[in-house]
Structures
1.
Amino acid sequence: MNILTVLGARPQFIKAAAVSQVFLAEGIEEDILHTGQHFDDEMDRVFFDELEIPHPIKNLSAGGGHHGAQTAKMMIGIESFILDSKKKYDRVLVYGDTNSTLAAALVSAKLQIPLAHVEAGLRSHNLAMPEEINRKLTDHVSQFLFCPSDQAVQNLKSEGITDAVYLSGDVMLDALNRFKPKAIQRSLPGELHEEGYYLFTVHRPYNTDQASRLGEILCAIGELPYRVFWPVHPRLKSKLHAFEIPKNVLLSNPVGYLDTLNLLSKSIALITDSGGMQKEAYWMQKNCVTLRSETEWTETLERGWNQLVVNDYKTNIPRALQSKPGEWMPKYGNGQAAKLIAETLK
Ligand code: UD1
Ligand code: UDP
C-alpha cells in the first residue's frame, strides 16, 4: 500500500505528526508531498523538527499569491509529481480544508486515485470562508471520509454522502495526547511568569483583512486585566505597523506546537479564530472566545466552553472570559483516530 500525503499548512503538519507515525508502525508506505503553502521556518520547519514528521519527498514552493493562482500552481505541481513518479500511488491522503487540500483533491480525482480526506464533514455553512469551499469540494470527490464527530457524519449525510464515511475521531487529539506531556515541561517566556495571561491568535481574512475590525479587537484586548501573549501569524507581518499595540500585549513570532500547547495549558483562557485551537482549548478545559460568527466545531460551544464573539468586542470579550462553563465531557473521539484511519486504508 503506497500512500501519497499532500500537505502544506501549519495545522496539517500537526495532523501528519499523529498519522504518519502510525502508518510507519502499520507498515504503510507513505510519501509526503509538501505544497510549500507555509514556508517560514516558524510555520514549517519547526514542526518537522519537533514532531518527527517524515521529511517530504518534494516541496513545490507554491505558497503566497491569490487563491486561484496558489491553488493552480499547487495542482500543476502535484499532477506533474504523480505523473512523473516511478511509484504507483494507491491512495492520496489530505487533511482539513486548505488550498493544499483542494488542489490535491482535484488532481487525485482527475487521475482517479482514491482520495482519503481526514477531517471530513466539517461545515461552517458560511461560503464566504475559503475553507468552506475547500472542504465541501474535497468531500464530494473523496473515497474515504474520516470524520471527527457525529455532527460531521450527519453533515455528509445531508449532502447525500453516506458511502465510506468513518467516524474516526480527531487526529488532533492523538497529537495532543502524544505531545502534551513533553510540552508542559517547557518554560514560559519570562514576562508571563507572575500573574496569569491570555493566549491570543488571529489569522482569518474576516478578522485580519479589515483594519477597522482588527483595530476594534486590539482595543478590547488592551482593556483586559492580564497580559496577552500573541504569536502573530505571518499574514499580518506587513500590516501590524499600522496598529497601536496595547501595552499588555506581548508580541511574538509564531511559536512551535510544543510551545503552543505549553502556553495554552498554563493560560487563563484562549481568544482565537483558529479552528484547531478551539479544540485544543476544549481538551485542556480552558475557556475559549472565538472571534467568528459561527464555528464548524459546534460541540465546543456546548455548556459554554467556547463562545462566539463577532461584534462589540469591548463588552463581549470580557463577558465571555468571565463566564463559567458547565460540565466537561470528552469529545472528538478517544485519541486513537490515526489507528482507525491506518487500518481502514489498509
Ligand atoms: C491558511 C489556510 C487556513 C488555515 C491557515 C493555518 C487556506 C485558504 N487558508 O491560511 O485555512 O487556517 O492556513 O494557519 O488555505 N505567509 C508567510 N509565511 C508563511 C505562510 C504565509 O509570509 O509561512 C503569508 C504570505 O504572504 C501569504 C499569506 O501569509 O500570502 C497567507 O497565507 P496562506 O497560506 O495563503 O493563508 P493563511 O492565512 O496562512
Ligand atoms: N499553533 C502553533 N503555533 C502558533 C499558533 C498555532 O503551533 O503560533 C498550532 C496550534 O496549536 C494548532 C494549529 O497550530 O495545533 C492551528 O493552526 P492554525 O490556527 O494556524 O490553523 P487552523 O487550525 O485555524 O486551520
2.
Amino acid sequence: MVKKTGIVLVLLLSIASFSQTKKARIVEDFNKNWNFKLGDYPQAINANFNIADWRTLNLPHDWSIEGAFDKDSKTKQAQGFLPAGKGWYRKVFTIPANWKNKAISIEFDGVFKNSEVFINGHSLGIRPNGYISFGYELSQYLYFGKPNVIAVKVDNDAQPNSRWYTGSGIYRNVRLVVSEKLHVAKWGTYVTTPEVSAQKASVNCEVTIDNENASAKEFKLVTSIVNANNVEVANSTSIEKFEPKTSAKKVHNLTVNQPKLWDTENPYMYKVLTRIYENSKLIDNYETPLGFRFFSFDAEKGFSLNGKPTKILGVCLHHDNGALGAVENIHAVKRKLKILKEMGANAIRMAHNPHSLEMMQLCDEMGFIVQDEAFDVWKKKKVTNDYHKDWDAWHKQDLEDFIKRDRNHPSVMMWSIGNEIREQFDSTGIAITRELAQIVKSLDKTRPVTSALTENVIEKNFIYQSGALDLLGFNYKHEDYKDFPVRFKGQKILASESVSALETRGHYDQPSDVIKTWPPKYGAPFDGNADWTVSAYDQVKSYWGATHEDNWKTIKKQDFMAGTFIWTGFDYIGEPDPYPYPARSSYFGIIDLAGFPKDVYYMYQSEWTTKPVLHIFPHWNWTAGQEVDVWAYYNNADEVELFLNGKSLGKKSKQNDDLHISWRVKFEPGTIKAISRKGGKVVLEKEIKTAGEASKIALVANKKTLKNDSYDLVYVTVSITDKDGNLVPNANNLIDFEVIGGGKLVGVDNGYQAGWDSFKANSCKVFNGKCIAIIQSNGKKENIQLKASTGIDILAKAIEIKVE
Ligand code: GAL
C-alpha cells in the first residue's frame, strides 16, 4: 500500500499550509488523488479493499468522454453515442487529530448520476439528480489522525436518460469544508437588496447559523460589505445566544451609500462577509457575492435593468465543455463566455438544469443576465430513464437546493421551473406548476417564476392556465408573437427559446441555388449533404424553428418582448437533430463545438454590439466561372463596396430590415475585398484570398501564460495555410500533437458534427482548415512546448507557452 502513504503525506502538507491562513473556515480542494474503476464494486467501501488495478486521477472527471463512439451505445444518438454505465471512485485521506471537535463536511457540485457516498463503510446518502450540488456532514464517522476511506458509487447505467449528452462521473468540483461546530449553515446566507438606487442601497442579510455543540453559545455576529477592492463600505454587529443543537436565522440590515451598480457592461461586484466571533476569536467566516441592480419585466415595455430599457440578448447553453465532455473547468467556461460576450450576448439560459458554481460565478463577474432553470421533465417522461423516475421522491429537495445555492447571484433574474414540460398538455400541469412556484417563492420572491412553453394554442397550455407564472416563456413560433399583446394582455413575455437553425462551420451551399426548394423539409437530403455537413449561410433550420435572421428581425421590433435566448450559443454533444447517425453532436450553435464562430456569429455582433463590424463570406476557393453568393454582415456604415481583384462589383447597403447584403459573383481566383464606409470615410476593410496549396501549420494560443496549478487550460488553434498564410478552407490534414513540459493534452476537436474520432486522441484532423488542441497544466513549473506535425509537405510547427 505504498500509494496510500503517498496520499497521506500530500494531504498533511496541504493541511499544514491551511492552518497558517487567517481565515477560520477551511475550504480545501478535494479533487486530487482519487482512484477510479469502471464497473460495480460494492466492497470498495471497505478499507481493506484491493484497488491495485484502479486508476489514479484528479477530479473533475467524466468517463463517457474517454470512451469510444459506438453506434450501438445504449445512450443513443441524443447523448452522442458515448458510453455510460457504472463506476466507483475512492480516496484515502487523513485528517489531523486536533480536528476532532470541528464540523467537517464534503461538498459535491455535481455527480452524474445516482451517486451514493460512503465514508468508512457508512452510507451518507444517495442523490439521483446528476446536476444538483449536494453535501454531507462527515464528522461523526471520521477517524482522526488515521486514514479514512471515502467511496462514491456512480450509476449512469439505465439508458437512455437524457435528450443531450450528460457525461458520467464526478464531473464537477469536490471540496472539504471544515469549521467550528458553531458555524454558518450550508448555503446559509440569503442576501437581498430591497432598495437600490444610484444614491443608496439597502441590504438585507439573513444568515442561518448552526450550533452543533452540546452547550449553549454566546457569540458576536458581524456582517460586512466590501467593495471590489476589499474596502469595507458597511457593517453590522449583533450579540447572539444559541441553545445547544439549534439552528436559527438572524437578520442584519445594512445601507450602502452611492453604490456602484451591477450591469451587463460594468458588472461591479461587492461581497458580504459574515463572521462569527466567540470570546473575540474569529471562529467562522463565510462569503456571499453581492451586486446592486434592479430590474423589471413589463407587459408593454419589455425588460429593463437599472431603469434602462434593455433587450435580453441571450443564448441557451448546455453544460458540456466540448472536447472536455462534462468535465467542469472554470477556464473552459470563461473562454465560452468571453466568445459570447464579444458577440454581444448579455444573457445565458442554463438549459435545462442547474449548471456549475463556476458558471454562476462567471456570469456575475462577466455581466450576463441569467435564466436559471431547474428541470426538463417533471412526472411525465421524455425518455425512458430520465428524471421522471425520481420526481416524486426528489423534486422538492432538488428545487429547494437549487434555489438556495443560486439565489445570491446578482446575475440570476428569472427562475425557470421547466422546459417544454409534458404536463403542459395535461391538466395535472396546473397543480404541479402551482406547487413548484410556491416552493420557489418560499425561498426567493425577488425574481419572477417562468417556464418555457410550447404548443400551438398556448391558451390551452395547462402550465399557463395555472396562473402561477410571473413571466411567460415562449419557445419558437416567432410569427405568432405579434398577436401576443392582445392574446396575453397584461402578461410579461419572453422568447425563452428561439431559432434552432443549423450550420456547419466553413461549409457553403449557395443560397441562390438552394433557395429553389426552400423551405427545407425535415431531414430532406437537400438541406444536408452526404458528408453530414449543412450550409453555413443562415438557410437551414429545423421545422419548428426559424433562421437566425427571421427570428431576430421579429424580436428586435417588438418592445413588449423582453428578449430572446437563441438555441444555442455553442454546439453541444448529442442531439444532432434532425440528422441521424453518424452525426453525433448538434448543429444548432452560433459557435461550433471547438469554439470557432460560424459566420452568423457576426450577424449578431453587427446587431448586438456597437463596435464596427464587417464580415464577408464564403472563402475564396471555388471553380473558375462558378457563381458564388458573397454575403456581408456589417454595421456603423452607410454602404459596403465589394471588389474582385481590384474591380468594383458595386456598392450595397441594407434596405428596410435587412440584416445582410449579398452579391452574386462569378468566381475568379484572387482577392475578394469589401470596404465599409460612413459619410464617404472608410470604416473597415476585409479581404479573403484564394488559398494555394496547404503548406504550413499556424498555431495560435488563446493566452500567453499558463498557471502551474494543474487546472489552467490553454486552447491552441491549429490552422492549415498556404505558403503566404491564407487559410486553406477545405484542408483536412491529420495533425499529430506532442506536448513537452508543464502541460498535457486533454482534448482535441475540429467542430465537425459527424466526426467519429476520440476527443481524447493525440491527433486530430483539421476540418475546413482548423482544429483545436486543449492543454492543461500538469502542475510542473516548466514552459510548455506544443509540437504539431503532419505529412512531409507541411513543416512541423511548435509553439511555446510560458508557465508561471
Ligand atoms: C427545443 C428544446 C431544446 C432542444 C431544441 C432543439 O424544443 O427545448 O432542448 O431540444 O428544441 O431544436
3.
Amino acid sequence: MSTLIRGGTVVDAEHSYRADVLIAGERIAAIGEDLEVPIGTEVIDAGGQLVMPGGIDPHTHMQLPFMGTVASDDFYSGTAAGLAGGTTSIIDFVIPNPQQPLMEAFETWRGWAEKAAADYAFHVAITWWDESVHRDMGLLASEHGVSSFKHFMAYKNAIMCDDEVLVNSFSRCIELGALPTVHAENGELVFRLQKALVERGITGPEGHPMSRPPAVEGEAANRAIRIAEVLGTPLYIVHNSCIPALQAIARARGEGQRVFGEVLAGHLLIDDSVYRNPDFEFAAGHVMSPPFRPKEHQEALWQGLQAGHLHTTATDHCCFCAPQKAAGKDDFTKIPNGCAGIEDRMSVLWHYGVGSGRLTPSEFVRVTSTNAAQIFNLYPRKGAVAVGADADLVVWDPAASRTISAKTHHQNIDFNVFEGRTVTGVATHTFSRGLLAWANGDLRAVRGHGRYLKRPLGGDYVEANRRRTGAG
Ligand code: DUC
Ligand code: ZN
Ligand code: ZN
C-alpha cells in the first residue's frame, strides 16, 4: 500500500521546502519534487499545507492507577485522540508500586498498551530501591529498550523518591548509559503545606496551588540538578511550570551542565486564577501537579522555550472525569491530579507559538517532535521527514481554525482545560507508520496498530557527558 502526499511544503527541524512525500508500507520511500505516482497509490492533495513529522508527546499517563482511581483515557482512546491532533508517538510511564518488582510492573504496562493506536515507548519510574531494582534497571535497559528512568520527588507516602533513592538510581543510570528524569517538587514540603492548609479550613481547590508554590518546585529542580552535577549525569526535568525551575535549568546549562527541560502546553497558557473559580468541577478539572501558575510564569516559559533552556513540549496527559475529581469535594488533597491535552498540544503550540512569532515552523517541529526523538533515542526513526524513517506524518493546514471543546474532542474525559479557545493550525491528515489514521475529521485509528518502541542506550550526548565529567 502506498500513498503520495502531493504538493505540500515539508517542514522539518532545519528548514521548509516544497516536495511530495511518498509512503510505501510503513516507511517514507521518497521525497522530491513531482514524484511519479506508482500504480495503485492513493494521492493526498496537500496544496497550501505543511507536511511535518508527527508529534511526539514524551509525557503521558494512559490508564494510570493513581490516587485511588484509574485515568479514564486508556492506551487506545488516548493515542487515537493524539492522532486526531497530529501526535503519532507517546512515551508513557511504567510506575511500579513501592516494593513491586520492576519487571512485573513493566509487563503489566506492556499488556495494557497492546491496544494502542499509535507507537509508544516507556520510561520506568524508580519508586523504591534494593538490589533487585538495581538488577532490573539493567535488564530493562539491555533487553527491553528502556533508556530513561523517572523519579518522582513528590507524592510522599506513595511513589516519592528520597535523596538516597535518587543518588542510587542516577548512579545506576550512568553505569547503563540511561537518562534519569525527574518530577521536581519537594514532596516533604507539599505534605506539610497540605496539612497546614486543611487544618486552617482551606479544603477547596484553591488550596492546591497554595500547597505547591513555585519555590517547592525550584528547590527540587535545583536539588536534582546538583545531584546530577556531582554524580556527572545528564538530566531531564519534566513539566517545568515556573520561573525558579527555569532559572535552575538556565543556570546549570550556563555552567556547561547537560540538563534538558520539558514544558506542558497547559503551563504555557493557563494561569492559577482557575483554582479560585467557585465552580468546584471547573477548579478541580484543573488540578494537576505542578499546578498552573500566576501569569508572569507563562511568559517566562515561552522565553525559556525560545532561549533553548526548554527543549520539549508535552502534556502529562492524565484524564480524570468529574465523578473522579469529586473524591476531593471536601479535601483538595484527595482530588486526583491530572489534566488532558494530547489532542490539543500541537494546535495550541502552533497557534500561540508560531502564530505569535515566538516560534518558527521549524522550531515548532523541534519542540513538538524532533528534540524528544533525539533526547530519548527515537531519532531518526521518529521525529524526521526522511527517506527510511517511519511514515509518522502530519499534514497541517496552517490557515484552518477549530474551536477546542470537550463536546467535540476525542479524549475520554468530560472536561478540556483549553475549552472555547479557537486555534489556527489544524491537522488535516495524520499517518501512523503509513496508516492514514485521521483524514479531514474522520478518525480511522486502529486498535492495536501501535508498536512498542525499543530505545537504545547511550547516544551522542551521553558520550559527550562521559567525556566532560569523566563519570561512567
Ligand atoms: N502529575 C499529575 O498531575 N498527574 C499525574 C502525575 C503527576 O505528576
Ligand atoms: Zn509529574
Ligand atoms: Zn506525569
4.
Amino acid sequence: MNIILLGPPGAGKGTQAKRLIDAYGIPQISTGDMLRAALKEGTPLGLEAKKYMDQGALVPDSVVIGLVKERILKNDCAKGYMLDGFPRNVSQAEALDKMLGDLSQKIDHVVCVEVPNEELIGRLTGRRTCRSCGAGYHVMFDPPKKEGVCDKCNGELYQRDDDNVATVTSRLRVYDEQTKPLIAYYEKQGKLRRIDGVGDMADIFARIKAVLG
Ligand code: AMP
C-alpha cells in the first residue's frame, strides 16, 4: 500500500506516520527528515536546502524529487511506503505520478489531516524533540517530566530551527498557497481521504486506520 500523508505543518503527520509504520510495516519517507539529515551531515545538498528551510520556503522541486526517486527504489519499499511532506506542490505531484507510472506503481490513498490554522502556530512553536532518540514532546500538551530532558533516554530536547513564530508563519502561508491545491488534485483522482486532525492522537490514528482498512 502506497500512501501520501497530506496536511499543514503541525497537523501531526510525523506522529501518525510513526504509528502507521508499526501497524502496516511500511516505511515513512519524510523529505523534511531527509533534508535535515543531509544538513546534519553537512552535505552540499543539505547546506543548499538550509537556505530555503530557514525561511520556511520550499526547497527546489528537482532536489526533493531526486531524493524521493532514489528512496522508493530501496528494498524496504517493495511492499509499500508512506510519503510524508511530499509532494508539496502540484508540479511535485505531477512528477510523482510520472515516476510511479514508469515503475508501474500507484498511490492508493492520500490521507489529508485537517487542523485549523489557529491551532497550528501553538502546536509548532511548542514542539520539542530529543536529540538522542527522536522522541517528540510539546511544552504545553505533552511536556517531559523534567524541562529540556527526554523522559525515555535522558537526552537533550531541542526546538527545530524552523519552529519559531516567523518561520512557522511563512511555512503556513506556503502551505496555503502551494500545497493546498493538492487537495483538489487528489480529490479529482478519487484518492483523497479527509481526516479530522483535532483531538487525542490515538483517536486520530483510529480515524486513519478506518479509511485505510
Ligand atoms: P517538514 O519537516 O515536512 O515540515 O519540512 C521542513 C522544511 O523542509 C520545509 O519547510 C521545506 O523547506 C523543506 N521541505 C520538506 N519537504 C519538502 C518538499 N517536498 N518540497 C520542498 N521543500 C520541502
